[in-house]
Design goal:
Heme Oxygenase, Chain A; 11 helices; mainly alpha; 0% strand
Length: 240
Amino acid sequence: MSPEELEQELRAIGAERYHDKHPFHKLLHGGKLNKGQVQAWALNRYCYQSAVPRKDAALISRCHDREIRRDWVHRILDHDGYGEEEGGIERWLVLTDGLGLDRDYVVSMKGALPATKFAVEAYVNFVREKTLVEAVASSLTELFAPEIHKERISGMLENYDFISDEVMQYFKRRLAQAPRDADYALDYVKRNARTPEAQSGALDALRFKCNVLWSQLDALYLAYYDPAMIPPGAFVPEKA
């Protein structure tokens, strides 16, 4: 494939597989969940958010090209913060604080679903073990992230009286960060995936990442939607 054809195939994967199409997200954005179910989503999603800097550090550790490391390291700082910049993880904790969850409990991840933890660690290991092109390609779900962030901001603010503008700052910041990161990663993949094998690996990497995100919502739907089947040790919402 030409680089342009490869991009078309990558974008087609998002159109088919990105997790904005999952029934749990439709419920979340449409105001169909109760507060406990929204808490469960935010608590479990913290596992993913907290793993992103580890994933990016694993990728950087494999780069012999100093320029790539210089370009990629801001992703870690975007999440962990630096100086007076609080970072994305802190902004996510503002969300869980606003939902009434104990911060220490969220950070401990003790109440997260087993499937969430398995999916998140599978992603970190994928980036650590696969080729660098595949590792970079797995981040390309960011191509599709701004639309879901816009939908989430408007839908949750409109439909939940326990959601305020302040706690949605994580998503508002990602509206600018995700396109910048996606553009860089897409350019890297298009320049470096030039053989059929490398292009196939890049496409499979993006499918894998979509599966990681989808499987987390599968677990939430099974555990917290009707009929709820919460596994032992996982977060149990308070009854309204």
